[in-house]
Amino acid sequence: MRCYEYHHIVGFEETNLVGNVYYANHIRWQGRCREMFLRDEAPDVLTELNRGLCLVTTRVSCEYYLELFAFDHVIIRMRAGKITQNRVTMLYDYLRANRIGGKHEPELIAHGQQQIAAMRKENGVMVASPFPEAMQKALDRYAAMDAAAVY
Hints:
By secondary structure, this protein is an alpha+beta fold. Helices cover 23% and strands 44% of the residues. It has three helices and six strands; from the N terminus they run E-H-H-E-E-E-E-E-H. Strands 1, 2, 3, 4, 5 and 6 form a six-stranded antiparallel sheet that branches. The two termini are 18 Å apart. The C terminus is likely disordered.
């Protein structure tokens, strides 16, 4: 199964007083991963965004299994889950690639999902819109094998 990967090194500003990563950053990283996916895999969508296309996040979640700390190398693997005419559920796996002072096999830290809807402004009202062709093709390339079961 093909996954889009975004790599991130945790900074001190992403940790809390206890020293672990503040939970909301995982959600922020989902958005960043999605942006980089569009830049790398469907750059024509950027033009569509300037022409009124809106990619609206309608639902987001994250399940946390292990903590992350400053300078951990995080790999966020994203793939497309269920795709309908104007909605897609993106699936995210967060893996720690290494810890300070040593390397080991990547370990699953968290799992997340977000649902995105394609919308356009028409006469001041948001209406459902199909995904642009370039984005649909990119989503198809990264579709999960079990996408029908994911929602």
